[in-house]
Write a structure and sequence with these properties.
- The protein is an alpha+beta fold.
- The chain contains four helices and nine strands; from the N terminus they run βαββαββαββαββ.
- It has two domains: 75 residues, Alpha-Beta Plaits (2-Layer Sandwich); 67 residues, Alpha-Beta Plaits.
- 29% of the residues lie in helices and 42% in strands.
- Helix 3 packs antiparallel against helix 4.
- It is elongated.
Amino acid sequence: MKKIYSVLVENRSGVLCKVAGLFSRRCFNIDSLAVGETDDPEVSCMTIVSSGDQRTIEQIEKQLNKKLDVIKVKTFDETASISRELMLIKVKYNKSNRRDIMEICEIMKAEIIDMSKSLMIIQICDVPEKIKLLINMLQSISVVEVARTGTLALSKCVDTE
């Protein structure tokens, strides 16, 4: 079972280390972690994806709420939230496979953002499953380097009147 935690924290040094330490001490795994400043420079948002059984998921939320630097913890169900991940992938290409790469990019809604005579960098922003699919599709072509962000998520928009 996977859960996405959106954790608002005080934006100061050492907070990331404390949160990561909480996971480490209790042997909870972090599948993905992304941290960035919010619209308030004093507050950062940590988006953490973790997996485990129901008890583990509940424990993580309880432990996060106990931390002094934590302002607010929200959990997102994958169906009630929008999540995205960004990936840059550098591939080596030649004349015989260039068209295949371009077709894959078109199908996957990925974008070629840089090229040389034998290398290209492709960018995709999508759900983690599609990111993994693109990696798998390009694996046979000679992937040189991959850089991925962690998952970012927000709850879906719901108008309340």
